[in-house]
From TrEMBL:
Family annotation (InterPro entries): FAD-bd, FAD/NAD-bd_sf, Ubi_Hdrlase_CS, UbiH/COQ6, UbiH/COQ6_monooxygenase, UbQ_mOase_COQ6
The protein, known as: Ubiquinone biosynthesis monooxygenase COQ6, mitochondrial
Transmembrane segments: none
Leading EC class: oxidoreductase
Coiled-coil regions, chain positions: none
Name of the gene: COQ6
Entry keyword annotation includes Transferase: no
Its EC number(s): 1.14.15.45, 1.14.15.46
Organism of provenance: Letharia columbiana
Family, similarity comment: Belongs to the UbiH/COQ6 family.
Cofactor(s) annotated in UniProt: FAD
Catalysed reaction, written as an equation: a 4-hydroxy-3-(all-trans-polyprenyl)benzoate + 2 reduced [2Fe-2S]-[ferredoxin] + O2 + 2 H(+) = a 3,4-dihydroxy-5-(all-trans-polyprenyl)benzoate + 2 oxidized [2Fe-2S]-[ferredoxin] + H2O; a 2-methoxy-6-(all-trans-polyprenyl)phenol + 2 reduced [2Fe-2S]-[ferredoxin] + O2 + 2 H(+) = a 2-methoxy-6-(all-trans-polyprenyl)benzene-1,4-diol + 2 oxidized [2Fe-2S]-[ferredoxin] + H2O
Pfam families in UniProt: FAD_binding_3
Length: 495
């Protein structure tokens, strides 16, 4: 631990809330006298890392802690990010009510550009192999929206702006991690009575050759986390052999200006054998697409002209799977093929009173991209003086839209655990005194979500046999049982 004046011997501490006994040294904090030692060093400046630091700075109990952020990208670009009203980034997320509450609590939500946020109050989900197997979720007028869509960069800019308004943290952006190692043991006799034993402290060497020590090192550094590697934490999981194709879609002019238009406040998701396709409204006449499909189909989609790409999106929400699969075999001409098939089967052309999304008019230039889908889960989120949050701790299939929400929930929980430790005079880097509280709260909760989403993926990948009939029956049954459906909504919004 960092600070002034070691006590000569540890003292016993019994937590009044759990009655556990800890052997703790007196409370000490980093000071200007040890400029390269920080209470919390966070590697990774995405929403998870930024929200953690904002939460620590905005809390009275932890506002005095010495904080550092290491980020390989130029955060000035995120700070000054700005797009015109008729352009949207394809990297978007749906924020649950719990995430919005956390962002409001730490003072970040007022800095979000709400003109670029689209709440939705309804969800329509159906099985691509069984047209009568549907489920609908609807938020009451008195309830908060099911979720709110916004661009990840809109959120990152808000979090950076919030941090700028709080006491200064040490920012090492445009800087990568060159090495992480434990500090040298304290020499005896100590150089002075206040010398710190940094042998258990992670020492982070930066690409600038500067080295800083961390009382608590937080890995918010993504799937291939150097912090997780340093801590020796293993992961389990697998690749799905699927890619997520994303794009910003444009609706026919004038159809999206009213947020009370049912199709502007509704999220749509159709489960196809290759994976789900989701349409999520953005402000104005825009929407975001997330289409899970096979790598060859993802390559084919990205190679199409924008007109044929739009035809494929419209077909994916309306045509039978056999028709859609045939259209994937064509190098071009999907526009004419869709028009012909809709003329032969007029029912495919209708929007069914809001039960399917409106026909897409066009796609924003340069917005089509794809990424591989994986499941990963760390065996633990903590070791001594190390904690993992966000994608460093878990990577989830996007079909439930929970990835960013899980990362924000991690940040909320870890910030609360650090706050609890500070208020109780405990070492914020100690597993028993602090970090176990975070690990116990979030690991199992996230594991349940990862497992549920993984099982949904495999369930809806089946194309024949009794599984198709049983899953259709299950979908219709849940849709008919209000209390059960309400439980599913609460589970999705609890993160």
């Amino acid at each position: 631990m960092i600070g002034r004046g070691f006590p000569k011997a540890p003292r016993s501490y019994i937590c009044p809330s759990c009655s556990r006994s800890f052997e703790l040294q007196s409370r000490r904090h980093a000071t200007a006298a040890s400029p390269d030692v920080y209470d919390v060093v966070c590697v990774g400046g995405g929403p998870a890392g930024l929200s953690l630091l904002t939460a620590l700075r905005s809390s009275k109990a932890t506002s005095h802690l010495r904080l550092a952020l290491i980020e390989s990208q130029d955060l000035e670009r995120a700070r000054t990010w700005n797009l015109p009203p008729d352009q949207f980034s394809y990297r978007t997320s749906s924020l649950t009510p719990s995430s919005l509450s956390f962002l409001s609590q730490i003072g970040a939500w007022p800095n979000v550009d709400t003109s670029r946020v689209q709440p939705y109050r309804h969800m329509r989900v159906w099985d691509g192999l069984s047209s009568n197997s549907r489920i609908s979720f609807d938020a009451l007028t008195s309830e908060p929206p099911i979720a709110s869509m916004t661009e990840n960069q809109n959120l990152s800019r808000a979090l950076i702006t919030s941090l700028d308004d709080l006491p200064t943290i040490s920012l090492f952006d445009k800087t990568s991690v060159a090495d992480i190692h434990l500090g040298p043991p304290l020499s005896f006799p100590a150089e002075s009575p206040t010398s710190l034993d940094l042998s258990s402290y992670p020492h982070v060497t930066l690409s600038s050759n500067h080295t800083i020590a961390a009382r608590l090192l937080v890995g918010a550094d993504g799937l291939n986390s150097p912090v997780r590697t340093f801590a020796g934490i293993s992961t389990r999981g697998w690749d799905y052999d699927r890619h997520g194709v994303v794009a910003t879609l444009k609706l026919p002019p004038g159809t999206g200006h009213s947020r009370e238009n049912p199709q502007r406040v509704t999220a749509y998701q159709r489960f196809l054998p290759s994976g789900p396709i989701a349409f999520l409204a953005l402000p104005g006449d825009y929407a975001t697409l997330v289409w899970t499909t096979t790598p060859p189909q993802a390559t084919r989609l990205k190679a199409l002209s924008t007109e044929d790409f739009v035809a494929m999106v419209n077909a994916a929400f309306r045509l039978d799977v056999v028709d859609l699969n045939y259209m994937f075999t064509l190098d071009s001409g999907q526009v004419g093929e869709l028009e012909w098939r809709e003329s032969v089967h007029p029912g495919n052309k209708a929007d069914l009173g809001g039960e399917t999304p409106q026909h897409i008019a066009s796609v924003q230039e340069g917005s089509i991209a794809s990424f591989p889908l994986r499941l990963r889960h760390a065996s633990t989120y903590t070791t001594n003086r190390v904690a993992l949050i966000g994608d460093a701790a878990h990577t989830i299939h996007p079909l439930a839209g929970q990835g960013l929400n899980m990362g924000l929930a991690d940040s909320h929980s870890l910030a609360s655990a650090v706050e609890h430790a500070v208020l109780h005079g405990a070492d914020i880097g100690n597993e028993i005194a602090c970090l176990d509280r975070y690990n116990e709260e979030m690991w199992m909760s996230n594991n349940r979500m990862l497992g549920a989403v993984d099982k949904l993926h495999w369930l809806y990948s089946a194309t024949s046999g009794p599984v198709v009939g049983l899953r259709g029956l299950g979908l219709r049954t849940v849709d008919a049982l209000g209390p059960v459906k309400g439980w599913f909504m609460r589970q999705a919004g609890a993160l």
